[in-house]
Amino acid sequence: MWELSISVNSKSLDIARFVYQTLKAQTAEFGVVVTCYEEFENFYILLACPLEEKSRTLSVIERCVIKVICNFYKERFLTENLRLPLHEKMSLMAFKKALINFDKETDFYLISKNLQLERNLHLDSFYYFKLKTLREKWAELVSLANENSDYLVSNEAFFDILRFLIDNLEVCEDEINVFEDENGYFLTPQHEKEGECPYSKLSKEGLVSSLIELCPKKINFFCQNDDDTAGFISRIFEERVNVCYNKSVEKIDKFSVFK
Description:
The protein has helices at 13-27, 54-81, 89-101, 104-114, 123-130, 132-147, 155-167, 204-214, 228-237, and strands at residues 2-9, 33-39, 42-49, 120-122, 175-181, 184-189, 218-223, 241-245. By secondary structure, it is an alpha/beta fold. It has a 4-stranded mixed sheet with strand order 2-3-1-4. A 4-stranded mixed sheet has the order 6-5-7-8, with helices on one face. A hairpin with a 2-residue loop joins strand 2 (33-39) and strand 3 (42-49). Helix 1 (13-27) runs antiparallel to helix 2, helix 2 (54-81) crosses helix 3 and helix 3 (89-101) runs parallel beside helix 8.
């Protein structure tokens, strides 16, 4: 058997939960045993797998660690260091999400280059002692935003920069359909993965965040009326968005879009 322990500070419950749930779900078919416990102000996620499955398990762990650093740690870094002028909550959330996903490929490379998965990995120690170059890169991005904060006071200038960031993100989906009903928003890629349910209830913030992360070439937005969220998404994605207003959209068979 091959074993690995991943630990994180107990204050980072969201990270510990994400790592545990992700690894447990994505390694189940490999026969990997995943457990967790809390001790001495740390959460520990323990994995054990057959030696013949070590390679596949390592690949899953690496992707998980990279996602944790690029999302949770980078968001924390931006929150602590960005000094942006006051704007509407949705706009600031979208701006931060665009910065999180900006130049993602280089972030991935720097993390992967320094990641060594042996017997123990403490995420905080890895982040602070092995990823100095990554933090310096993020600091340059934050410094550029802070230095231009006076310019960003203008609402139009703020959205110009936000659109620029989004236009330069990696495209992860060709086409995405968004539906609105009384329960919220439902997002589905044009070609959803087999066995995955493409729909989940999303808030306005969750929808905008997901669309920025996926950064599709085309967004088909089916909404019931003049929706503020559709207007916001159209403003930041511009010509990529096709808004379809239909007051009876809740009756549309969502699967018919793909037939």
